[in-house]
């Protein structure tokens, strides 16, 4: 929470309990003046947000009581007195809980040598749109580009946290009005729209988001990576992210009907996996069961579709490097890919099948499909959250055959699946989000050190980078490194 929010809530809490004893020592109007000043300062300097409505209402009730109720002691034990006390406690819990659970949060400040610029690109492909019912629809995407920028003038406005369509899609997912997320306007980002790309040229990374997530809900991760000297193309897989805002004003949201259609009858695929892990089968006995399932599960088709999305963008990069705001800024011989969750598996698929990609990373995603039968021919990083022991570790089978080059397998202890997104900052209650008990900033710091270090070593070819040294720096990091025949 912000400074004046905390001051306001503290004063309201104290006045709710102690205003009568205080009024016997200080004139009531001075208490009211103090409360009014704090309330005005909070509204003027930090701004109204709906999460503080209970606090504003309590301010009004307290002001009326202080103004019109005698300050003489009226204490006596009674059922009514106890009920009033319980009611006050409930009110104070609500007053504190709403702004604490949905705070105006702080994003980590990028630590790289560059400022971070952003821009959006609208792409119309020649492919049919598989998700909608209209046979005339073609696949369209709106991408966000994160890139290194030189020093930023003081009057340049920062990027707003999440566009309105992504906010609306997020609110719809949880059955809330879109206006619920208007308070995100107060979140300070470290990205600047449409500023010039920094002088020089930079490696290019494609990033693929989680299924049914906010495509641009990775500000902490992508701002940091871009600040380290990378152009990051933030994919937004239309109808499978929470929202895409097209230039003509049209919005495309997550298609829940399509999800239900493709996910129907999938338990018959998942059940053998669950039974294999719950039983007493060893790794070798489970392996053929997992092998069959990972190629039949519906997320395999999603990842295949997303791979084609990313290949469509790879096809456009030579043109973008000759005209437009990225002209001359991209090193097209240094292309990488990474992603989170389903997008992490899609990133692995692209790294496996497309020779233009020189290195890839998967942040806690299952890579469905044929990887279980083959080997990466390039450096790869698979970063895992700290899943419980009963979790079905499919990637232990899928990535059993690792890489002919470097293969990194880190795990960040006490993390959960959402710790690679902004969610732990946005809703800092682990029990609500599934995040781990780790401090969100520490989790993000370790993640970005791993991701940027991996690409520094294997795209930028910086020989001095020692990824294994991160094990000694962070107690919560486990890391294994496997070296294939091609690894030096």
From TrEMBL:
<keyword id="KW-0812">Transmembrane</keyword>
<feature type="transmembrane region" description="Helical">
    <location>
        <begin position="6"/>
        <end position="23"/>
    </location>
</feature>
<protein>
    <submittedName>
        <fullName>Platelet-activating factor acetylhydrolase isoform II</fullName>
    </submittedName>
</protein>
<dbReference type="GO" id="GO:0003847">
    <property type="term" value="F:1-alkyl-2-acetylglycerophosphocholine esterase activity"/>
</dbReference>
<keyword id="KW-0443">Lipid metabolism</keyword>
<keyword id="KW-1133">Transmembrane helix</keyword>
<dbReference type="GO" id="GO:0016042">
    <property type="term" value="P:lipid catabolic process"/>
</dbReference>
<feature type="transmembrane region" description="Helical">
    <location>
        <begin position="54"/>
        <end position="72"/>
    </location>
</feature>
<feature type="transmembrane region" description="Helical">
    <location>
        <begin position="30"/>
        <end position="48"/>
    </location>
</feature>
<dbReference type="InterPro" id="IPR029058">
    <property type="entry name" value="AB_hydrolase_fold"/>
</dbReference>
<dbReference type="Pfam" id="PF03403">
    <property type="entry name" value="PAF-AH_p_II"/>
</dbReference>
<keyword id="KW-0472">Membrane</keyword>
<feature type="transmembrane region" description="Helical">
    <location>
        <begin position="79"/>
        <end position="98"/>
    </location>
</feature>
<keyword id="KW-0378">Hydrolase</keyword>
<keyword id="KW-0442">Lipid degradation</keyword>
């Amino acid at each position: 929470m912000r400074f004046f929010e905390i001051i306001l809530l503290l004063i309201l809490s104290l006045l709710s309990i102690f205003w009568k004893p205080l009024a016997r020592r200080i004139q009531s109007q001075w208490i009211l003046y103090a409360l009014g000043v704090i309330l005005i300062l909070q509204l003027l300097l930090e701004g109204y947000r709906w999460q503080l409505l209970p606090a504003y209402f309590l301010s009004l009730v307290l002001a009326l009581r202080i103004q019109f109720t005698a300050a003489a002691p009226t204490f006596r034990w009674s059922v009514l007195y106890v009920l009033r006390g319980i009611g006050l406690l409930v009110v104070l819990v609500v007053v504190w809980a709403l702004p604490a659970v949905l705070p105006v949060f702080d994003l980590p400040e990028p630590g790289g040598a560059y400022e971070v610029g952003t821009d959006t690109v609208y792409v119309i492909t020649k492919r049919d749109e598989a998700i909608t019912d209209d046979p005339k629809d073609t696949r369209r995407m709106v991408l966000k580009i994160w890139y290194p920028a030189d020093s930023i003038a003081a009057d340049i406005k920062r990027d707003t946290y999440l566009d309105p369509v992504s906010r609306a899609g997020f609110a719809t997912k949880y059955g809330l009005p879109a206006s619920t997320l208007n308070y995100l306007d107060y979140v300070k980002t470290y990205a600047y729209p449409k500023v010039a790309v920094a002088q020089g040229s930079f490696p290019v990374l494609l990033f693929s988001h989680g299924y049914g997530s906010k495509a641009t809900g990775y500000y902490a991760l992508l701002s940091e990576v871009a600040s380290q000297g990378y152009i990051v193309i933030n994919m937004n897989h239309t109808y499978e992210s929470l929202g895409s805002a097209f230039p003509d004003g049209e919005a495309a949201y997550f298609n829940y009907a399509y999800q239900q259609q493709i996910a129907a009858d999938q338990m018959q695929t998942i059940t053998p996996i669950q039974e294999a892990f719950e039983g007493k089968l060893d790794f070798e006995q489970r392996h053929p069961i997992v092998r069959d399932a990972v190629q039949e599960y519906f997320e395999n088709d999603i990842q295949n579709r997303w791979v084609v999305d990313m290949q469509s963008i790879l096809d456009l990069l030579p043109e973008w490097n000759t005209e437009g705001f990225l002209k001359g800024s991209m090193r097209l011989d240094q292309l990488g890919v990474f992603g989170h969750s389903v997008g992490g598996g899609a990133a692995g698929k692209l790294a496996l099948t497309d020779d233009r990609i020189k290195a890839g990373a998967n942040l806690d995603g299952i890579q469905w499909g044929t990887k279980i039968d083959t080997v990466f021919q390039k450096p790869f990083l698979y970063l895992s959250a700290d899943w419980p022991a009963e979790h079905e570790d499919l990637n232990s089978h899928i990535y059993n055959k690792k890489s002919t080059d470097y293969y990194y397998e880190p795990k960040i202890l006490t993390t959960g699946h959402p710790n690679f997104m902004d969610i732990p900052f946005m809703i800092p209650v682990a029990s609500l989000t599934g995040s781990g008990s780790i401090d969100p900033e520490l989790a993000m710091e370790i993640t970005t050190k791993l991701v940027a270090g991996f690409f520094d070593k294997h795209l930028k070819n910086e020989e001095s980078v020692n990824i294994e040294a991160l094990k000694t720096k962070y107690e919560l990091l486990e890391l294994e490194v496997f070296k294939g025949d091609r690894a030096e």
